Amino acid sequence: MKYISTRGHAGQSAKPEFCDILLGGLAPDGGLYLPESYPQVTRAELDAWRGLSYAELAFAILSKFITDIPPADLKAICDKTYTAEVYRHVREGDEAGDITPVHWLEQGRLGLLELSNGPTLAFKDMAMQLLGNLFEYVLARRGETINILGATSGDTGSAAEYAMRGKHGVRVFMLSPHGLMSPFQRAQMYSLQDDNIFNIAVTGMFDDAQDIVKAVSNDHAFKAANKIGAVNSINWARVAAQIVYYFKGYFAATKSNDEQVAFCVPSGNFGNICAGHIARQMGLPVAKLILATNENDVLDEFFRSGVYRPRKAAETRVTSSPSMDISKASNFERFVFDLVGRDPRKVAALWAEVDAGRAFDLSTSSEFARIADFGFVSGASSHADRLATIRKVFEQYGVMIDTHTADGVKVAWERAAEVPAGVPVLVLETALPVKFADTIVEALGREPGRPADLEGIEKLPQRVEVMAPDAEAVKRFIVERI
Ligand SMILES: *Cc1c(COP(=O)(O)O)cnc(C)c1O
């Protein structure tokens, strides 16, 4: 499989393959990588895949996108990644070996697709764990090393650290805002004692940490000399890994491949639902993709109006579903590429506006007139909606859900009339409630339960360097440790 850029120029004279783009970020022209075409899944394949384990299914799907790793090696990587030991936080009563079981709220009608059973209790683990094993494999094959630099307000940083800990050839330098994460989130990250994991708490806000990452990445000489890399949400391998659980969820929710499902996806950077879009383009029978945002509704606005208006940092609201607090959606360009008929000139023109801080408007375009063909429906949720939804789900079904999943359930209920009768709706469970305990207490007046293996982690010794928000100091810190 060859890869292309959404803006037309993938860089090499020959189009790159999977391993060429695995360790990089943006394409050289500033676009995002996508496969040259989406592999089509035949009915015979769907029939054969229905009974596969998660690891087997991951191999079957990923081998369509990854053709430059020998199949036996890719199979071993999938087998090592998707185990019941790694994804060990499955809800009581659900099958541990399923990795991503469906937990029905209403049997056959409304269910949670459990994606948060990995080590850091959020769906980021689904892709990040695979990325850790792919990085180690490809770096060893090439005799290279990488120093991952990132900034996190919580979920991504911990998922990256748990995926990369102890991996040969990989070091992680993760910046976080000093004192602003919850005690649980701090303990999750800072208690890691692995030699290749470095936590840096910056005395500032998340944006200060993010600015340091940008400053270091824009220092091209430093970046090249010190092999600085990233694992952010535009990484193609992360999107590819996420395609798998749409197929797995489909098989769990249906009895035959003549049926359809709908997915509702709590969204921020459009990475998760982009994988659902690709699964649908491959031929998975998906009736609707329901996109849920919180108060930061830039994506809901687009799907309702055709206007994409990235917000200024000052317009971005701090909410109780913080992993969806985004001002622009970094993966959205991948969908728009498909929407405009895969015309890179059109995408480049639209993103010239976005990169200049302006909106674009497709409302009167022939492309937006066909938006329904892509199956998208959208809605937004607020703090009051989250509290009410967490309460209602707990009272009606005895199930505790996190704030992001609550945004999903709220929008799934609201848009139910647009899903064809008899089609089950799966809401993607993107985190477990214990990660956002304050809001659970606000909604229910009680603490969420905590998995036994995470009991008391706040008391473990922590390893973190507190630093002023100063890019030069961070560079010195990195150089001294590699
Ligand atoms: C990252 C994240 C999201 C948003 O996912 P995107 O791929 O950025 O759309 C939603 N919920 C949780 C808990 C997350 O960590």
TrEMBL record:
Residue numbers carrying N6-(pyridoxal phosphate)lysine: 124
GO biological process: threonine biosynthetic process
Domain of life: Bacteria
Domain Tryptophan synthase beta chain-like PALP residue range list: 113-340
Short name of one Pfam family: THR4_C
Pathways involved: Amino-acid biosynthesis; L-threonine biosynthesis; L-threonine from L-aspartate: step 5/5
Reactions catalysed, as given in the entry: O-phospho-L-homoserine + H2O = L-threonine + phosphate
An annotated Gene Ontology molecular function: threonine synthase activity
Coiled-coil region(s): none
SUPFAM superfamilies from the UniProt entry: Tryptophan synthase beta subunit-like PLP-dependent enzymes
Keyword terms, alphabetized: Amino-acid biosynthesis, Lyase, Pyridoxal phosphate, Threonine biosynthesis
Leading EC class: lyase
Domain Threonine synthase N-terminal, residue spans: 2-82
Cofactor: pyridoxal 5'-phosphate
EC number of this enzyme: 4.2.3.1
Family label: Belongs to the threonine synthase family.
PANTHER family noted in UniProt: THREONINE SYNTHASE FAMILY MEMBER, THREONINE SYNTHASE-LIKE 2
This protein's name: Threonine synthase
